[in-house]
């Protein structure tokens, strides 16, 4: 069987302009070589989706381009393989899959090194400049729709018994795993601070603990999120509105500081604090960032031989390793899923997510 | 300009069976997406070509397949870009390029890690199983012909002022560079033994010395080759027929042994000797191998914490870095080029190479 | 408090010659700078101890030296810090500690790189050649005694609630962890074969599974050991007397082979089989070795770009990371502890271990 | 011979307070185990020496400590081994040596990893807290004197034929080499920008070019320094007062940006500019820093997957590798040596260095 029954058209949300989402009927896309068509079963909302909703795509903004009025956002989705493009045997029709965002071009220097999320042909996937790069929901059509086309490189099998909703969290866990990879990967028994209990921060706690990091310390501003962090594996939580986080980390580590910080808050002073939290030779991963340039005390970086790693997305096949931990039930990712809506209800879902109604964390659209 | 004037057919050698080379007229191939057509200007003979000539392709032999009677071998070639496939702007028509052998599929786990010479879809490039892997001269048509199609990932620019003949050596230098990469790469001031003064061994001497290794010690059986090694950068040479190479290495290193061995001889006892040459914690790269299983004293590996790296080809974009050293004239690769023939004279060229007539090292066919 | 009450002399076993263990009264040793005196509470027997018992110390044998008739073997011990040498504040008197074997000299090139188990001054710790290297039980007095001196670098804290007997297994787990480190460390969701269900093999299963490797496949000859492997985390076990292990691994991995092999059997054909088990680009760690040179098909290493890592001991501070997993109760190391004797009963304990009486695995002497 | 003739006392400069250098007569120090006494033959002035002269030692300032009025600064020195401490056979009396600054404690987690310049016992080398850390000229007496004691780990042999003055530059070259190490080390044919033509910047140009980086681009404000950069290997120089350096780098790289930036200027906007100079996935090493926190656009770090490495000093035995390149005369380090004074003339030498009189770069005191 090479395909399931597929309609000619589908429902899909498109973004006409800032805050202008519109539900349309679009042709179901056709998978090319090394691609598959996925029937989307569930899609979650990510903070980046809000950025796109309010400002447009980063590529448009930075490139000074007009809105592509036919563009469908959404990138944290999972579904069922429905049709195979030429040469695909890595998956079968009917397989349940979650998706990575980035399919690199496979031909630039970074892709050839394995750094496909840093593809130098980012965004080049149209017309005569088609280099094959895809970042669904960012540069190619995404998941707020009934169907999407994905490159086989972006597919991660979803194990039996994992719900559709939980599977939308695989790529979030993959981003956390990638962050821990770049920090060195050998973190069993090493001390880790995660700053910011958003989805990537919470997943960094969960993945870090699953790999044996100890202690795992989570900082944040809301007790409910910190409590969730505890359930996901944090050994200690620090509410930064009640306690100075640098002092607390020093206290919890007998003055020694920690080996690693995963910065997931984007707070303006987060990097400076992280540099005070790690010991000499420590490492910091930035998975979030402030909206504007912020003062950074670079002397600390140099004097203390600190390395800082910006990460974009979920590289190094980390999503597969994160999915393996979830398959082995090493942590309860589904604790992060708080709300479910239908595809038609995307605007309401966005409202819940943006206003954190009922303490929403992961808001998921069940599409099929 | 998207193409130079291109004939419909071309001269090409095909291998009908062991030792059965035949010159035929074939259609000039057509480049697909991400590929180019190259007019071959020069092609060198490699030891592996002799293996293929005498036994057939490794894939045929190990797979029990019949000879593909239309197959054209040859993989150490360079030429002029003649036509661009879809989406290619990495090179222009008229560019002079040398080629790497391996174009990975870009979608298996190894390719996604950047290990494209270890592609798990090796050889899968035909029909419904087309994964896009190419290894020209091994699994896809090669360079003993007037034209060949290459994936853009395999192209390395040839600088102005470098002769066609010298440019055929770029991929050999790339293999040597890759070997030094896997040994750790930081070899300035570290001690290096190269065993076997064949083309890869000689290039390992040259690249190792260019990167600052010291001392560089070359072992072999023929003084003429060892003298060439000296001209390419060896600080010491050891004729193993006159001196025990392990003792000589110990003597030259005040008993300490060396940090690294590049094994390029394929001699039955080479790995055992290499383990005696390196110090505790040392590393050995195997770029050659004996035809049959040989006794190895694995206790030395474990007791001395030695790492052994088998390498296949020219991974990690090492060819580009090797070409950069050649462009900067860090060593005289052309010293290794000893004989030139025309495309029609391939059988004679093979004879010179196999029988080492006039001490032949690199025998090159000038094709255009 | 800088010391507990310490006697002048102690009971200690010494090795007069092959198979000639003798219980003597020796002076309690004195810790120097950066050293501590440990009251040994428990010590396990390792396969290497049997080697030493039957043949003498490797250094004596290979160096042609006479037996040091005052030498005390034993290296898998734990105990209580009893006295601090000058400058020690890393531990306190009364702390419970397990020990690593290797204290590097800290001044050779390998130690400066962090490769302290590959210290180039191995064995140099006496008289005018004192470089500070210690490998207790191998080059300096070990743990079949009431007290031992250890460098602070070799100390690993034992958590509350972990029994003395279990704590003797920390260094075994550390060796397994080190093996997984050199294989790359990022093994969650990657496939791992462990060959040989001895203590290091079983611990490799446990640590590998704790880090998320999947599947973990254990091979061996005895069902009881394989069953223990299952309890420690193996997803599949293969009795090599009932099934060809290479075929079984291929079957269990849908023909793909595995990413990693930890070779812990020392069987003559183990490396050849491991090379057939891994896929192209796979990696093999040798933690055991055959007593004599064995035929190895090096062609496979080169053609398939396989890396082989000999490991000596428990480098890279892996013991600390392994202890962290044990502290977090990620696997039940104590399943491997089968028998307990008193210090006086060492000969009997050796007999149980060597003859595998009552399926003995880890045989422990409770010393205090 | 274990010692040369050694006086009881020596001339040495001490720092009484900011700007208060005083020449005194001090006892010649005694080497301990693993240490040697060096007769200082030449010592250069570094920018950090000026920091210390004007503000005191970093440890005093940050720790709120009073000036140690007996402290001798100076860290870029070389000399002759004059006496061996216990257990030293790595060098002989009479050997000419240059020195690294950092001798790690050898027992903290960072030293055990090989990161001895990030020693967690930094500064702990006195009295009961003696962990053996030494950073001569920073935490222990340095080189503005006739003699100094050094740990064997800090010694680098000076080859015959290299002048004393040139040898003082070995540690500067080592710092540059270490920076290139952390950037990945495999830089042949890769593009490198060096910002700031001070001694470390100029050496980064020289070492980078020696290892084959291409192009090497140097930015700065003074044409005389940029010209020197050209003589040391820069392919292009950019005077930032005449041209926007980011635009110039883009122009020189056909819009692609570079792979690596070595930031050696400490300019307030240098990191922001470096992030605009590198391509996606690029890497930046900070070897200098601004005196105060500066605005940094962290979004670029994250969006472009950029890694930033602060480096302290000359880790990873890079000094040995740098010395090997100098021994092989791969670049003319001595071009950086501009002025020579006697030990008595230290204040004048400082004036030349600080006021860049006669375009002073490396100002050296010849001591013996």
Oligomer: homotetramer
Shape of chain A: globular
Low-pLDDT residue spans of chain A: none
Radius of gyration of chain A: 20 Å
Q: Let me know the largest β-sheet of chain A.
A: 7 strands, mixed
Which percent bin holds the helix content of chain A? 25-40%
Distance between the termini of chain A: 21 Å
Largest chain interface and its two residue counts?
A: A-D, 44 and 44 residues
Summed over residues and divided by their number, the pLDDT of chain A gives a mean of 94
Features:
homotetramer, 368 residues, alpha/beta, seven-stranded mixed β-sheet, six-stranded parallel β-sheet, 12 helices
Descriptive report:
- The structure is a homotetramer of 368-residue chains.
- Chain A has 368 residues and is of the alpha/beta class.
- Chain A has helices at residues 47-55, 58-63, 109-113, 164-167, 170-182, 199-210, 223-232, 245-252, 270-277, 298-303, 318-327, 346-354; strands at 9-17, 20-27, 35-44, 76-84, 96-99, 102-103, 134-135, 147-151, 155-157, 192-195, 216-220, 236-239, 258-263, 278-286, 294-296, 307-310, 337-342, 362-366.
- In chain A, strands 3, 4, 5, 8, 9, 17 and 18 form a seven-stranded mixed beta sheet that branches. In chain A, strands 12-11-10-13-14-16 form a six-stranded parallel beta sheet, with helices on both faces.
- In chain A, helix 9 links the parallel strand 13 (258-263) and strand 14.
- In chain A, helix 5 (170-182) packs across helix 11 (318-327) and helix 8 runs parallel beside helix 9.
- The longest helix of chain A is centred in the middle third of the chain and has 13 residues, at 170-182.
- Chains in contact: A-B, A-C, A-D, B-C, B-D, C-D.
- Strand 15 of chain A pairs antiparallel with strand 15 of chain D.
């Amino acid at each position: 069987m090479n395909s399931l029954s597929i309609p000619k058209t589908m429902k899909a949300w498109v973004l006409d302009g800032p805050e202008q989402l519109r539900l349309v009927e679009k042709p179901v896309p056709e998978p090319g070589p090394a691609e598959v068509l996925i029937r989307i079963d569930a899609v979650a909302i990510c903070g980046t989706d809000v950025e796109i909703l309010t400002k447009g795509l980063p590529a448009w903004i930075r490139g000074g381009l007009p809105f592509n009025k036919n563009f469908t956002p959404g990138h944290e989705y999972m579904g069922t393989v429905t049709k195979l493009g030429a040469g695909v045997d890595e998956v079968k029709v009917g397989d349940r899959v979650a998706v990575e965002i980035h399919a690199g071009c496979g031909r630039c220097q970074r892709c050839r090194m394995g750094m496909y999320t840093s593809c130098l042909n980012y965004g080049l996937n149209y017309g005569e400049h088609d280099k094959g790069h895809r970042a669904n929901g960012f540069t190619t059509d995404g998941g707020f729709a009934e169907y999407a086309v994905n490159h086989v490189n972006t597919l991660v099998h979803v194990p039996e018994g994992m719900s559709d909703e939980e599977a939308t969290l695989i790529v979030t866990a993959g981003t956390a795993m990638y962050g821990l990879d770049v920090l060195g990967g050998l973190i069993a028994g090493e001390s880790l601070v995660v700053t910011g209990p958003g989805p990537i921060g919470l997943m960094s706690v969960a993945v870090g603990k699953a790999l044996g990091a100890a202690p795992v310390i989570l900082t944040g501003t809301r007790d409910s999120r910190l409590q969730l962090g505890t359930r996901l594996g944090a050994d200690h939580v620090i509410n930064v509105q009640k306690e100075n986080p640098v002092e607390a980390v020093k206290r919890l580590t007998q003055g020694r500081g920690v080996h690693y910080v995963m910065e997931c808050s984007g707070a303006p002073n987060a990097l400076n604090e992280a540099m005070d939290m790690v010991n000499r030779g420590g490492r910091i991963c930035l998975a979030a960032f402030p909206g504007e340039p912020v003062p950074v005390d670079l002397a600390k970086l140099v004097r203390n031989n600190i390395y800082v790693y910006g990460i974009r997305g979920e590289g190094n096949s980390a999503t597969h390793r994160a999915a393996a931990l979830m398959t082995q039930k090493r942590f309860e990712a589904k604790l992060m899923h708080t709300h479910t809506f239908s595809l038609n209800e995307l605007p309401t879902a966005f409202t819940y997510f943006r206003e954190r109604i009922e303490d929403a964390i992961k808001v998921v659209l069940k599409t099929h």
